[in-house]
Amino acid sequence: MFGYEMVLPMNTGAEGVETALKLARKWGYEKKKIPKNEAIIVSCCGCFHGRTLAVISMSCDNEATRGFGPLVPGHIKVDFGDAVALEKIFKEHGDRIAGFLFEPIQGEAGILGKALGGGVIPVSAVLADKDVMLCIRPGEHGSTFGGNPLASAVAIASLDVIQEEKLAERSAHLGEELLCQLVKIKEEFPNYVKEVRGRGLFTALEFNSKSLFPVSAYDICLKMKERGVLAKPTHDTIVRLTPPLCMSRDEVKEGSKVLHDVLELDLPNMQKAKPKDSPTTATICDRCGRNLYDPSDRAL
User: Quick check: bond before 244 cis, omega within 30?
Assistant: First the structure.
């Protein structure tokens, strides 16, 4: 299905990423002959791969990194989508680069987790060819429940369902409908909604922080929950909508209607009721100084 020779099942997205980082470093030392303790992992500004120590060391999320230092060394950051900057990094440090960690679409997407367990079992996976995977030998890495029979069976069944029921294609079609409905909401509330973006059923709205103040994306999501729809806030201004691939067209419409009703009926009262001195989340990365949600930097 993915074209790799081997798979190493783990439990969570963060555990999968940590495993991939160890694997990349081991390959770098054994096959690429990087000098001892000099391996570099390149990651993207604005990424999110979990909350374990090595992973947050590559994060721009202040909430994930503050109070947990010193962070793990051995990595370089590059702006997401900046191929010229990435090429420069490889020219300057290529002999020591063991891996490039990135998300095809930024949005706290993870690697292979979440849906892999069918929504019921914690399971993730690391995929690699033998030349890479076999660099780690028995006893050098392990996981108490990684690759357990139940999780593995669920993951296989989940992948079968995704293929047989063409859920990826379904996501693409329903995603177009969802985006169209969200664009209509943006057009109706241009003062509040700055941008609508997404791919398939992985979508998000970014709000104008000034016109939304003192209400936050978290507050919007709480109101949506009261009306029967679960959405995920990202910092203060972004609401992420990632509905299940098996949802119906009627449910797509209902979800959009709930968001519309929150903006039309609830938001004015929320702005009046919430204290004006409510704290906001800082958007300037403590480490690279980047404005995480500047209009020129796109992330879900």
Answer: no
Residue type, 212: L
**6-164 and 167-273 in the same fold:** no
pTM more than 0.85: no
* Tokens 């990651």 belong to residue: 43
The architecture in CATH of the region 6-164 reads 3-Layer(aba) Sandwich (3.40)
CATH fold of 167-273: Aspartate Aminotransferase, domain 1 (3.90.1150)
Computed over its alpha carbons, how large is the radius of gyration of the chain?
21
pLDDT in tens, 50-80: 889 999 998 877 888 889 989 999 999 999 8
Q: What is the mean pLDDT of residues 216-244?
A: 92
- Where are the domains positioned within the chain? 6-164, 167-273
pLDDT tops 70 at residue 42: yes
Cα 103 from Cα 30, distance rounded (Å)? 26
What does the buried/exposed string (b/e) look like for 192-218 if buried means 16 or more CB atoms within 10 Å of the residue's CB? bbbbbbbebbbbbbbbebeebbbbbbe
Task: Give the other-Cβ count within 10 Å of 26's Cβ.
Answer: 20
Beta carbons within 10 angstroms of residue 163's beta carbon: 11
Parallel, antiparallel, or unpaired for β 40-44 and 75-78?
A: parallel
Rounded CA-CA distance 272/265 in Å is: 13
The single-letter DSSP state of residue 99 is E
Residue range 182-205, pLDDT digits in tens? 999 999 999 999 999 988 988 999
